[in-house]
Amino acid sequence: MAQSEKIRVLIVDDIQETRENIRRMLQFEPRVEVIAGARNGAEAIEISTLEKPDVVIMDINMPDMDGIATTEAIRKKVPHVQIVILSVQADPSYMRRAMLAGARDFLTKPPMIDELTTAVRRAGDMAHEERSKAPIPFTAAAVGGVPGGNGTFHPKKGKIITVYSPKGGTGCSMIATNLAVALQTSETPTILVDGNLQYGDIAVMLNEQVKNNIVDLASRVDELDPEFVREVAAEHSPSGIHILACPPRLEMAEDITGDQFAKLLEYLARIYAYVVVDTASYLTDIVQSALEYSDNIVLITTQEIPSIKSCNLFLNLANASGLRDRITFIMNRFDKRITITPEKISESLHLPVTFVIPFEEKIVTNSINRGMPFVEEYRTLPISKLILNLAETFQEKPQESNAVKDRIFAPRK
């Protein structure tokens, strides 16, 4: 690593005067380039995700999200970034919490100029070293395309579609399974990922006895290749979709981090045209990673008040996190006899219900118990046509460019 390499620095403090003072302290250090300032944790996460600085100088006391929580979030998204925490209190408990969150150094405010520049140089050198050791990302440009589920290559990156409901029992697994089957063609290989790592039902929904599971891939996420993915993913022979099932034991779910899950989804999107993720209702690290890295989110509600209330809470979070524009809102198990209509829910939550799936208890229950998706077996039924129409909304139109589209993820969240 060349010692002359620039150290790109982000300064985070809710007081503008403090940000400016720190910038002045660093302006005579030839290796340091201050690229931006952030007023709060959300801005710091956004700028770090987009600009990928080498060092973040972080105030520990900020409104809404403190420096420790912000540090943890940034390190998850951009692992090579080194954080230098500033605090008015030289409290050992603060220091310990900061280091556990991933901070590189801890300085008392206001820092001495030599102390600050030394810490920034040290952190910058560490950032450059960690970045140089990071695995080269698998990209379409590097191989002339994206490998398909059958080992061929596609000219563009696939879509990640997460099916989510903040209330359990609304039919996420049923919709995710049938949606994946609807998206699968010989030209658009599709994989269905069970993001409910403790109590996932994807393998059961498809009547598949799987020998491998998602842990086998997540544990090696930095060294994957398409052939290994194909060995681990089970194939559902009637439909052709591939399956990544949840682990067979509850405690194995703890072996996967949100960062590993995000990397895995991104890799799968380079192999498959569609990656459909079924999720748990709780916002675990795994579920949050799926939502953050999704191109589209299928949000499900029913006519039950607890489900509508939970969707309203999630939409408040989605508004703050920049997720709202990715959401397709669906009402499942619609019963005309119930006075709570899709129109009323749309008006109440300020989000249109795009698809209304009717209450078809017998068809859905038989489909689940037999492990045969109804969209595969009965494509002409109204409920199947709705799922097929939903799938069409995610499919690329012929006139759209095949170029890989850059995706900018909103701050989280």
Name of the level-1 CATH class of the largest domain: Alpha Beta
Output the CATH homologous superfamily of the largest domain. P-loop containing nucleotide triphosphate hydrolases
- CA radius of gyration is 24 Å
* Count of distinct strands: 15
Unreliable residue runs? 135-155, 398-413
- Count up the domains: 2
Largest sheet: spatial strand order: 10-11-9-12-8-13-14-15
Mean pLDDT value: 84
Shape field? elongated
Residues in β-strands, percent: 15-25%
Roughly how many Å apart are the termini? 34 Å
Describe the main β-sheet briefly.
Answer: 8 strands, mixed
Within the CATH hierarchy, at the fold level, what is the topology of the largest domain? Answer: Rossmann fold
Number of H- or I-type helical stretches? 17
CATH architecture of the largest domain: 3-Layer(aba) Sandwich
> Class by helix and strand content?
alpha/beta
Fraction of residues in helix: 40-55%
Please tell me about this protein's structure.
Strands 10-11-9-12-8-13-14-15 form an eight-stranded mixed sheet, sandwiched between helices. The protein starts with 6 loop residues before the first strand and ends in a 19-residue tail after the last helix. Helix 7 crosses helix 17. The chain is elongated, with a radius of gyration of 24 Å. The chain is α/β, with parallel strands linked by helices and 413 residues long. The protein has two domains: 127 residues, Rossmann fold (3-Layer(aba) Sandwich); 253 residues, 3-Layer(aba) Sandwich (Rossmann fold), CATH 3.40.50. Strand 4, helix 4 and strand 5 form a beta-alpha-beta unit. The C terminus is likely disordered. It contains 17 helices and 15 strands.
